[in-house]
Amino acid sequence: MMASSFRDCKAWRAGGLPLSTSSNEACKLYDAILTQFVKWRNDETLGGFEGCISALQEADPNFVMGHVISTGLELVSTTSSTRLNERLASAVRRTVELANSQDISPREKLHVKAMELFSRGHFPKACDVWEDILVDHPTDMLALKFAHDAYFYMGAQTQMRDSVARVLPHWKPHMPLFSYLNGLYSFGLLETRLYDQAEKVAMEGLALTPDDAWAVHSVAHVYEMKAEVDKGLKFMESREKDWQVSDVLASHNYWHWALYFIEKVKIVMSFLSQANSWHNICVFVMVNVSGVCVKDRWRELLQVTQPHTDDHVTLFNDMHFLMASLGAKESGTSQRLLEGLQELAKEPGDNQQHQLAGTIGVPMCQAIMEYDQGNYNRSVELLYPLRYRVVEIGGSDAQRDIFNQLLIHAAMKSENKRHQKLGRCLLVERDAMRPSSPLTERLMQRALALHN
């Protein structure tokens, strides 16, 4: 039996979010899955995500919101495409069929609609539907979290912030998961450059819940964007025991910790063994850390990324998969990824990422490939016109900084004198935004040495 701390049918009703099932166990398991999603943690005492999802399906196989949360979680992980994964596509269809055959609430119907839209890559419309839910049900954490993740994939920074701001007054401290709103709101504030407010809000959340890994992650971003390296190092180290338990996010938080070391040019290979998700290592290795042999790392990484070459769920993923295949000198995989994206760009349908593939995704992938081949001139020509649109591939400012750095390096290495001048201009601009960045300082010195 699921612990009494989770909400049963009556508790969900009392909270104004009734669930269409008569099974108390199913309601509690739904709550347990939602809680782990918000905490970024597989709670082994509950059986983790997988254990809870299996138990939920057993408790009530026809529970629509049970299907919404389990299939929705797989979709927002962006590790599988309904174009290629028939099991996942079938799970989406099954949820829609169940919803149509039952008398469920308007809120639950909207949840099914949003999940179905997201499964087709129609991210903006899915967000509209989640926001519709939140107008009438501002304490629906599943709608809030799914919208937050989808905005992140679209680089919709202001929407990500305002989505949480709108519901905050409706939440009360006694409500389950209340303290986690701080981390969510803080991240939106941070991505809209409101760094001091973001830090304050995250710290308020951490005072209530010290192990909120998303709030820790938000503070890590603040120190990264302000280039407050020593503050960041101290903060991540002092709280490691708190955020380490959130296994889904811990590797990414280690990547943030590693970024501070990169700023200081310390060798951080020990971190790579902990920061072992494809994104963390991809971005880490792409940054030029002198003196570290990373050839084997790329091969290792390719084992993880190669099976996803044809997925094309998000452009952000595609670019990092491309970095891995280029790093591993796997030109066939690189070419296949690019051609697959070009093909999808021809008839994107409702898929928002595929709609952007032709104008942003393909030229950015080509710029990365040109850089890899030493064609720095061409790399600059492809990347420079897109620099203010890169945000649309999703992710965070800290993650997308790899493309700023790529453009700067390409400009500095280009034989074109105008590009070299542009590289210095971009460094001045970077210095204005992050005045104390040791990395920028090193790049400026290198630019002077190269071109004088």
TrEMBL record:
Which of UniProt's keywords are assigned here?
Answer: Repeat, TPR repeat
Q: Which SUPFAM superfamilies match?
A: TPR-like
Family, per the entry?
Belongs to the TTC38 family.
Q: Does the keyword Nucleotide-binding apply?
A: no
Q: Which domain of life is it from?
A: Eukaryota
**Keyword Repeat (UniProt):** yes
- Can you name this protein? Tetratricopeptide repeat protein 38
